[in-house]
Each structure stands twice: as C-alpha cells, then as structure tokens.
User: Fold these one by one.
Assistant:
Number 1:
Amino acid sequence: MPSYDYDLFVIGGGSGGVRAARISGGHGARVACAEEYRYGGTCVIRGCIPKKLLIYAAHFSHDFEDAAAYGWNVPEPTFDWSRLIAAKDKEIDRLNAIYERLLDGAGVKAYHGRATILDGNTIEVDGERVTAEKILIACGGTPSLPVLPGIEHAITSNEALNLTRLPERIVIVGGGYIAVEFANIFHGLGAKVTELYRGEQILRGFDDDVRNALAEEIAKQGIDLRVGVNVTAIEKRGEALVLSLTDGTTLECDEVMYATGRHPNTDGLGLDTVGVELAANGAIKVDDFSRTNVDNIFAIGDVTDRINLTPVAIMEGHAFADTVFGGAPRKPDHSDVASAVFSQPPIGTVGLTEPQARERHGEVDIYRARFRPLKHTLTGREETTLVKLIVEPESERVVGVHMMGADAPEIVQLAGVALKCNATKAQFDATVGIHPTSAEEFVTLREKVAPQQAVAAE
C-alpha cells in the first residue's frame, strides 16, 4: 500500500472546499486544503456577503425617502463610501478568520498559496510538494471579460467592491443577476447608472413575467436600462471613459463594470497533466457523485459549472465527504434549488419557469397577481410586487414559485420546502395566510390566468 501525506487534498478554500475538508476531517480523514487568495472564497470575500452588505447600504436611500410618509422628519442624509467599504472589509476579515479557525478545529492543515497538480497523487503549493490519496478541486470561478479595444479600462465585480471612491456615472454591462444587483447598488448609493445588455431582456433563464416586471421597476427608479445594445470599444479621455455602442452612439462615464459571465477557474491547475476531462468552457466534467474521469480526483462547486450557487457547492462538498470518507454514499440533489436576485425590489424563485414547465409537462396552470404592497399606499412609491405559481394540472403539484417584491428571497426560501415536499395547489389553498402580508398572496391565488395574458399591475 502506498503511503501518502494526506488522505485528501482540497484545492480551493471557498465555502464548498472548506465544508468538504471539515466534514472529511470529522470522518477521520487526514486532510489539507490550499487557498491562493483568502479563505472564504468568492462568496465570503468578493461575492455574496460583501455584495449583500452594499445592497443593504443602497436600500437606505429608499428608506429615508419613505420615512417622511410615515411622519418622520429626516435631515438631508449624506453618504460616505469610504466608511462603508471600511466596515465591509472589517466584516470580511472577521469571516476569513472564522473559516481558518473552522479548518483548524477540524484538524485540517491549511496552506496559503496556489496549488497545482503534478501527477495523480502529488500537489505542489508554493514550491512544497505533498502527496494525497484523493484530490478534490473546489477552486470556483472568476469573472470573464470580452476581447475589445480598451477593455483594460473596465472593472469586474471583484474591483467594484473595493473602489476607492463612488463613481458619479457608471455603466454596467450585462443582464444577469450580478449586473442587475450592482446596477441597483450604485443607483441606491447615488451614482447615475446605465445598464447595457445585448439581449432582448435582462435575467435570461428566469421566468419571463419576473424578468419583464423587474425591468419595469428598474426603469421607474431612474436606472437607464438599454437592451439590445453592446459596447464595441472603450476609450480613455482624461478622467472619463467613452464607450462606443453598437447602435452608433457613444456614452461617457467614470467607470464601466462588466458582469457578462464567469468561467471556471481551471487554468494552470495541471489538469491536463493527469488527463482530467474538461468541458469547452473549462468546467471540470463530473458524474452524479462529483467524480471526474480520473478515479481519485473529484470536483465540486462553480468549477464544475452545474448550479453556481454557494449553498449548492456546500451541499456538494458535504455529500462528497459523506460518500468518500463517511461510509454514507449520497448524491447532491440539484432539483428545485431556490435562488434570489437582490435587486430593488428583490426576486425569489424556485422550481420551473413557465417555459420550462410547459416543455416538461405540456399544459400547465398559471396563477399570478401583481399589486402595490401596503407599505407604498402611504409612500406613493409606484413599486409593485409580483407573485406567481405554476401548477402541473394532472397532479395539481406546484412546480414553480416566483416572486418579485420586498422580502421575496426570505419568502421563497420556505416555498422551496413546499416544493421539496411535492405540495399541491390544494394544499397551498388550504393554508391560512398571514394578514396583511405580501406572502399571503401565495395562498389566496384562486383564478387561473391565460399564458399569453400580459402582466399588469392591479
């Protein structure tokens, strides 16, 4: 029997890799983990957590405006970008330290440096070579930038979280959830925001009713949303950037941020050395148990490009550890994974979109409502809420839940539990609502709507 330094070596110290390392260590495995930047990965260091903190900050501008309608005399507020970033950085430092303590508490050896695979059982970290019986790759993804003149002047979400100053004018290029969220962040903090998307509507892959409704809300707020438009070149003119657009116009700004997708972070890992099979976009191909085509090498999280969400990576990492070291084989379950867009208003969604449901089940029943929430009957704000249920008529099972409105992610999280339990429309109907809430609309929807019927605010 060959002797190895470790039973498991994890490459990548994000949420998925840390969970896999900790649980494997708890099962008695000798584990090491390497991270080339900071432990916590994309989510903790430059993704979910810092972004959500900035979203909270941006929402205060609405709160200050709305307070007057409820009798509050609020002095003219001022905003200090540097204070926000310093507070955000302090919290990220705290979380980074927690992640390292968690690994230490599980007996995991933490390496700080870039790891590369030299052969099927040998890994090098900053010049040090170690061996492991099994290797788990969990090094996530990284923002993609297109090739065009002047792209060196653009930033991505990584840099946007650490700007030294708040730009007065910023252009966000992209139509996915990252682009939409940052457009709302910068707008809420006082910047003039233009969002450009080359497609016909933002949030491709989300339910069409939700996509269209959010686009309306974004425009109401004053974000200049332009679809069917892209950038062909970026030119630096003094302190400003000038963008040439596909419609023949130009656009001047102080910063341009690209959120046009991410790609798996597999370059330079040495995967070609051991023959790990990759997809065309660089994602590591794995089976249902996160195994690659090389027997002792596994991969989880965004680097596999399955569902690129932090809780999914954590689920995959835990399932891997239980399967390989815990004696309890199980596959990660990728069905009915709830997700959110922390826009203004936010979106929560779980299950199938209407087109997906029709493709899978044929005819489906649609229940939907759009209304002004109670809060804004006093504020006068024109913001609306949208709720939607998609039902498979033969079984009456609810197969899709979608919401745009305040607290939508919090509400839809528990709707995800209902879908996991195969809840039916009759069971939704039999549930007594909490009044007055927007969430109660999900259990009071009674009338089906025609699929081609336009969504209109009531």
Number 2:
Amino acid sequence: MTKSSLRTIAATGLLLLAACATTPPASVHQPMSARPTPAPAVAPANGAIYQAQYAGQPGYSHRPLFEDRRARSVGDILTININETTAASKKSGSTAARAGSNEMSVTGLAGLPGKGLLGSNLAASSASTFEGKGDSASNNAFTGIITVTVIEVLANGNLLVSGEKQIGINQGSEFVRFSGVVNPALISSANAVSSTQVADARLEYRGNGYIDEAQTMGWLARFFLTFLAF
C-alpha cells in the first residue's frame, strides 16, 4: 500500500471522527447569539452631562438611574424559566351486537304434493358481535433555566430571543436550546420571563456522543423498517 493511499485512509478516518462529534442540528431561530451594535464615535463635549445627540442612535446605551436593567436591545440577555408541562389523553369505545333466529316446522300437508316434508323441522340462528376500544395518553415535563440573547427587536417592540446551553459530560455533550418572541411588558424586574409566556417558542434538548449513538437506530435498520411490509 502506497503512502498516498495511507494518507487518504487517514484523512477519511479523521473526517468520519469529526462527523461523529458534530453539533446536533437545531430548529431554533438563528443566530443563537448576537453582539450589540458598536457605540457611535464620541463627539466633542458640549459642557453638559447628558449628550442628547446620541439618543436614538445604534449602540446608544444611556439609561437613566431610575430605569431597570431589563432586556430591550439587540445583544441584551434575558433569563428564561423553563416550566413546560403537557398532558393529553384520549379514550374511545364502541360496541355493536346483532342476533337473529328463524324456525320452521311442517306438521301436515293435506291434498298437497311434498308429503315427504311431513314431520320435518328446520331451525336457523345467527349472531354478530363487535367491540372496539382505544386509549391514548401523553405526559411531558421540562423544567430548567437558560439565559438567551436578544437577536432582533421587532417593529412592535417585541423581542426575538435565542440561546444555547452546552454541557459536557464525560465523552458526550448535552445541548439545551431555546428561542421565541417575548413581550417586554411580561419581563419581571429580575430580567426573567416564564417559557409559558413566550410566543413561537422552540425548545430543544439534544445530545451527542457514544451514549446518544447507542440509542439511535442504524441507517440499514431504518431502511428495512420503512420498506418491509411485515
């Protein structure tokens, strides 16, 4: 085997290892972080403490002393209290029954042909029963805390936020992602909001590593599961 072939095999192995360690794909709003706009250049002082010409400009960060530190601009951070609980159940049942009975007996035939039927008895009965039941239930709970970043301020003042928390455990990593639209009026004085008050919320909990790979069905098994009819 030539050196060129060995290098090719080694490069292929490194690519496969890198592919196994990639971050799981995300469906939350992108980007998951944003930096604030740089502040404008400092203008010559006009002798006053408050510089009115900066107000309304991108990157203007002046906040009076009586205002709180709630998120309101791109790049600000906001704490999301995740408290998602869902429960759904469905139950149905149906029953149908049908029964029938017929009897016939020949006791006498006077002056009519077919006397061979005299004394014969004929009885028939049928029954049909159907019963069906269905029951389905689902319960989910997700609690936690994640801090996200304001990535866009919408025209009506609502904040589009997105963020990710990555936790490395041994040879695997866990990813908690969240994004959604927050009404600034619902933000508490502690600069936090509940996930149940976030519109268009997208919440993910994913992982990678050998533990996650062990729980994933192989591509060949998925192929046969999709196309086999039994």
Number 3:
Amino acid sequence: MLRSLAILVIVAAVSLPGGASALGVDSLFASANNHFEQKEYDLALDEYVEVAGMGYESAALHFNIGNCHFKQGQLGYAILYYLRAKRLNPNDDDINANLAFARQFMPTRLEGVKVNPVTEFMKMVVSPFTLEKIAWISSVLFVVFFLFLSAMIYFRLQGFGSKLLVYVLLILMLVGLGMTTYKYRIEYLTKTGVIVSEEARVFSAPSVDSDVEFVGAFGLTFEVGKKVDDYYLVIFENKRKGWIRKDDIEII
C-alpha cells in the first residue's frame, strides 16, 4: 500500500538558492500537502514543482512529488522521484516501501542480469549511507588516526597495543576512504537514468530509422553513456545496451 506524505519543516527564515525564503518554501510546501490530502493531486504537484523551482531539494520533496505522480498513474515518474528521494535518504522506510510498491506494477523485468559479487557487496555496504555521511565518517577516522599517530611519536609509545591500534585505525581509515570513493563514483560520476514513458524503444543506433533492439518499459534503470542529438546511449543491468530518445527517460 502506498504510504503518503512526508512533512517538510524549516525552522529558520534563511535564504535559499534562487532567492526564496525558508518560510516561503515552508508555506508553499504546506499548501501542497493540503491539496494532496484533499486529493487535488494536480494542484499539489504544481506547488511541489514550484518549491523545487525555487532551488530547494530534499528527500521529502522528491517523495511527495513521486506520490503525486503515482496517484495520477504516472508510474515512471513516480519511480524516478522515489529514486531521487532514496539517494538523499536511503534508510527511510516510507520511501523504500513506496518505491518497492510502485515497481510491482512494472510490466518488464530484466533477464540475464549478471551479478558481480564484489560489486554487489560494495553496494550493500554503502547503500544505507549518504555520500555526506560516509565522507564525514572517513574524515573523523582520518583525524583520529593522525592525532593518535602524533601522540605515539610525541610520547614515544612503543607498546604492542599502541602499534596494533595504529594499524586498526589505518585500516578503518582506508576502508572509509574506499567507501567514500565508491559511493561518489556510483552516484555522481556514473550517471544513471530511468525510463519514464509507458514504453521506450531501444535502438541499435541514434536514429529512429535504425533497428529496434528491444522495447523497455517504465521503471527500468540504466547507466547513461554519451548523448548524440536527441538520443542517449544506455547500458542496462544485464549489460544490454542501445540508444533511447531523451523524451522517454529522465536522469536520476
């Protein structure tokens, strides 16, 4: 069952990108929530999008936009915004529940997905964290390692326990840095997208006159390669690739 609204609370009237005040965003968000509760989904969506146009971004905002699209039967866009919300708040139960629920309606599933155990393990490790949180943990580990190493040198600590702790801190610091690098690569360096139209033809070349490799449906995700004219080269999880018109997809 679809779980409903997330509430946005802004406690200070600070300036946001685009010159909007936090109080203005808060008021508009509350108005959109009210329209949603009244089942006026088109009005709610317009106001949520207006909030986004002010330069504000949050998991709650993406989540509620996704809910509006779901209520209007636009499941491709619902999945898109749930994925955007999940990137900002990967552990939110409502976001994950609505994403899973919306994906139940996908008419097409990928076959022959090749699973790399190392990649899957890394994804499992970093998925509960945002990039900011992993980077913060890595920074703390670096500072602790540096301070303890400095203390060892200054106080000439030579015991086994001190050396063991240095190695443990070093390993933890390197693991943290590796996780930060991996998270940044998969979520920011690697551009990902999702099919938002009901169905999308995947061509062998960036032209409508080329052969159709297969037809994908809303909700399928992929890595985005180069762009040629109005087409993107995309690579799906099962490593099939092809060209899709940009009007059929959105970047997550």
